[in-house]
Specification:
The chain has five helices and eleven strands; from the N terminus they run βββαβαβαβαββββαβ. It is α/β, with parallel strands linked by helices. The radius of gyration is 18 Å and the shape is globular.
Length: about 250
Amino acid sequence: MANLETLQIRGIYGLYLIGDSIKELGYLNRLRRLCITSLRDVLPSQYTFLNCLPNLKTLELGECVEWTDEVYEVIARLTKLSTLRLEFGGQNAERGVGIILSSLRNLVRLELIIFRIPPNFGELLENMQQLRHMTIWPEMRIKPDHNNYNTVRATKFIPFVKTLMWGLVTSSLHDNQTNSGASDTHRIDHNSCCIPFLNFNLGSPTPNRMHISAHQLMNKLRSELPQSKVQVVMVPNSSYRTIAYMPR
């Protein structure tokens, strides 16, 4: 086990470790790929084992609801990472995303699943010139209009991204997905879902909340990323937890 380079553990109903046994992962210091998105009830203080894995290239973690600044700071020190996937962020997610992206400038792939998106998301991504693939599922239960607006705004800063997957959790689902690119043959129903968004009116000090359709979202993304392959994927509210097990 000491020579292990890849470790991927996933469970549909979550996995629980006994006591502080997660720290044993720190002895696998040759790991290049670590994917443990299904672990449950891991305390923020227990993620310090990542300090012993400086050679990681790929890191996928889930159940980030209770994460503190300290957890995000540990990840930010893994400067050799080229792929990072985080699932189900909590109240500190906006701040945490800023901490990570301020340091991990060499990421090629970034995936944030059910995460709050900070207002300066675009400015953070602009400095990540190696980034080529991004998957974003903005948090839709708390400040969805802000999260969606901040994500769309960020696309102005990333013309170098080749692929963008945007995930939507919606109460109504008529079409599973739409793609843009050379082989664009899919169309999305204008009424397939109503997406909360912010509208900044000229002369108004505060934005108004509005709703846009999935088709309008696609048009916005296409106009900002004309050279990129853009995909919108939707799942109903009732099964949003299955996002973690969708094919990558």
